[in-house]
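Regression check, heme C case 131:
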Amino acid sequence: MLAVALCLHLAAGAQATTYADVAPIFATRCAKCHAERGLMGPAPEGYRLNSYEATLSTVDRVRVVPGHPEASELVRRIRGQALPRMPFDGPPLEVAARARRDDLPAPGDYVEVRGRIGRDGAVAVERIRPR
Ligand code: HEC
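Current build output:
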C-alpha cells in the first residue's frame, strides 16, 4: 500500500515529489533491509535507502535516473517490472483508492480482505476490514 503510494507519487507528480515525501516510506518499508546492518545483514546489492545521498548514489550502479521513473531500477522494482519485486518482504497488495475501508485497521490487526487476484499474483483490494 505504501509502496503503491510511492509509485503514484513518483509517476504522477514528478515535479511535486521531493525526497521528503518518500523518505518516511523508505524508512519504514525499505531501510529495515537496505541499511548497513539490516534484517539480511549488509544492505542487499550494497544499496542503502536510509539517506538521500545513498538513494541517489551511483557508486556501484544507477538505480535512480532523475526525471525518468520508467528507467529507474528503484521504481521498476516497486512496480514489479523488475524482479524480485520490492519490498522483498511485502505482499503485493494494491488497495484501490475507492476501496471500502470499514473502521480502518491498524498495523497488527487481523483483517478480512476482499479483492481480485491479477495475473501477476498481486491482489487488488476492494474491501478491507478488521475481523
Ligand atoms: C526484507 C528485505 C528487503 C526489503 C524490506 C526491501 N528490499 Fe530491496 N532488496 C532486497 C534484496 C534481498 C535485494 C536483492 C534481490 C535481487 O536482486 O536478487 C534487493 C534489491 C533491491 C533493488 C535492486 C538493487 C540493485 O542494485 O540491483 C532495489 C532498487 C531495491 N531493492 C529497492 C527496495 C525498495 C524501494 C524497498 C522498499 C519499498 C525495498 N527494496 C525493500 C531486500 C529487501
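Comparison notes: The mean pLDDT is 79. The chain has four helices and three strands. No diff flagged against the previous build.
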